[in-house]
Amino acid sequence: MKFLFDFMDKNIAPLFEKGGKLERLYPLFEAGDTFTRTPAEVTPSAPHVRDSIDQKRLMVFVVYALLPCLFFGMWNAGHLFNINNNVEGATFLTDMLRGATMVLPIVMVSYMVGGVWEVLFAIVRRHEINEGFLVTGMLFPLVLPPTLPLWQVAIGISFGIIIGKEIFGGVGYNILNPALTGRAFLFFAYPAQISGDKVWIGSAKTTLDNSLLGTVAENVDGVTAATPLAVAAAAEQGSSAIQALADSGFDLWNMTVGTISGCIGSTSVIAILIGMAFLLITGIASWRVMLSGVIGVVVIGALFNALPAEKFSAFSQLPFYYHLVMGGFLFGIVFMATDPVSCAATNTGKYIYGFLIGGLTVVIRVANPAYPEGAMLAILFMNVMAPLIDHFVVQSHIKKRTAYARALNHA
Amino acid sequence: MAEFKIKKGFDIKVLGKPAPEIEEYANPQLFAVYPNEFEGLKPRLKVAAGDRIKRGDILFENKKNEKMLFRSPCSGTVKAINLGARRAPIEILIEAGTQEVSVSFDSYTKESINTLSREQVVAHLLNAGMWPLIKQRPFNKIANPESTPKAIFINAASSAPFQADFSLVLKGDEEAFQVGINALAKLTEGKVYLCKSAGSNIPDFENTESHTFSGKYPSGNTSVHINRISPIQPTDTVYTLVAQDVILIGKLLITGELPRTKIIAIGGPAVREASRKHYRVALGASLTPLFAKVLETDQELRVISGNILWGDTVKSDTSVRYYGSEFFVLEEDRSRQLMGWTMPGLLQYSSHRVNLSTLLCKAKTWKLGTSLNGSHRAMVVTGWMDRHQPLNIMTDFLIRAALAHDTDEMIQLGILETDPEDFALASFVDPHKTDVCKIIKQGLEEIEEEGI
Q1: Which helix (H) or strand (E) holds B107?
Q2: Do B339 and A35 touch (CB under 8 A)?
């Protein structure tokens, strides 16, 4: 190992440093070099010591927090496929393998295409490769249906990274969450492959047929499975949305465990809660956003519940706690809304931002059934509003601090 | 007399606390004065290499205020004057002579000092070369003798790792301290505040109002004291001093000659364990022999004049400096850790909960080095920079304003209440390795240049 590192330092590093032949590719070298070993740089001036945390650790820990969602999503995709395609002899292992053949290509395409853009921009702009794309590259596939064509994955992540992030200057400068930007683009550009009731469960055509994964006995073409949100939105006025959900096989329990059709990473409340616990224990994501987001759903959901049932849709009568476990809200508020770049920066601002995401999610879901996935739109909308919230918070801070100084001085 | 509990803050648990005992260190042959210690000062030299000088002779003066003089700490021969960028003198080396000849000044007692006018005190301190010990806020530069401060803050507190223990420094010099205070009280129509750390054994003094501060770092920072006791408006001026410098001023007034010694604390992981303590040293005296004795020698070291969080890197052949009562020495850590981004972090120190060590090694004191522990990245607003900030400052937004050169916004956000040292913890915790202190410093310089 030591020999290899010495060789790197002596022979490879000079090629990429200033004046070296491959100077333009320095960001690429820096990424690889600091991936293997922490940099040797020392503090330039006071403070003379620094915390051992760096951006790599920060971002990679978010990816770790996403792993329960990824693994559950893989199993769930395979499990639903095997059930709906009447695969014989399906076990946990074959479920997992089948799911892997569906999900991993999406993750890999997302990382590869996203990574190419990140590297390209870093080299052209001559700045370091930012580890933020590790999180984006993982978040994006987790909010897609498992059957999405890979070329759409590539287009979506490209749109998210370029329009959502790089044209603003890269990580730290963007306004919108890049992963959600990519998803929103696919949602409006190719609705047939990302919404509706035919996209959530793979058919034999959309995955490998391999005897190792279990034989598909009956080649079902286009399995139909609606998501809970679509079912609730379609419930007729005057009827019970809970009953409509139950008729389609959804109850609080399976929506919490996540053995239902939906986006890869966002069906299982339990997997999300594990990731959330990890983020909160390590202190990486803002609890303020998460807490106020949940409060927002509860308050606005309860308000809708209080409306007269005969005048409003059945969805508005759905108890507010259903909103917490249905659809992508929880995944969004834990992993997407807490993105430190696009989220409100002030502490007070975070409460407002989170609350409005929660509230808007319910409003969009209930009042506009054309877009059942309200969380995505709510987060993107609040991303845009976050600087405005911060502006008002900072203005009131300035007023308070001068008032405080004056009061103390004249006391 | 009030007690202030500072709730926010963070103590860096680093090895090498200096013991509360004083060792005499005497008889150095070489002395040095560093004109570049006085930031922004344009010195006009009054001596040349080879000159024979008395103790207390003028070495250089301030070009912008010729009454502000800087005097020699010893008598002997000017050995060399080393120049830095743009031929500005950065180091005046003086070889001590065998016979000491001193310049003498007027001397006073505790009572007679009270009969002086403000102008007389100012003129005396300027002439004796002790005025620059008084700093001024905002901007933390040498006090303007013409300004009228609304208060004077004497900082006798210590919260950073590690600062000299003032209760130890004070022992035996209570009278000089009182005389110094009496002189300072002449400079302001407002009050003189003495700010102490909770639990320190420092009595109250006449002509001052004492306040105690408890809590983690930065509860000992002057900005925190000012903010809690009497915050400054953009148009206000306050004078600030470090407590030991008040003793030096007092000694000048009592004895009528320049003070000879001060006490410095030497600490840090790279100082030999038995040698981590306080030393009584001659002002301006070369520390080379002392450092040779007390420092570990098998590593590349960084000597800091100041504490681990705030201070300048100095050469290891430095002399006792005009400012500062402590030196901190640690290893220049250029080691590279394998895949540091994913290791459990048992052996790395962090203030965040991303390392196992944060949970498991709560009581440990760490042998920290100067590694940056990561690479520079674009700043992302995490809110972590304010986590340990007791001042009512929105660090992230202040940095943005400073980077955008928006002086109005910087002032509105309170930059004038601060000094770059108040952002040491913000720099420390930042995962993107933003040099917050430097950005704030540039912001303050810009405002000073443009005028408020």
Answers
A1: none
A2: yes
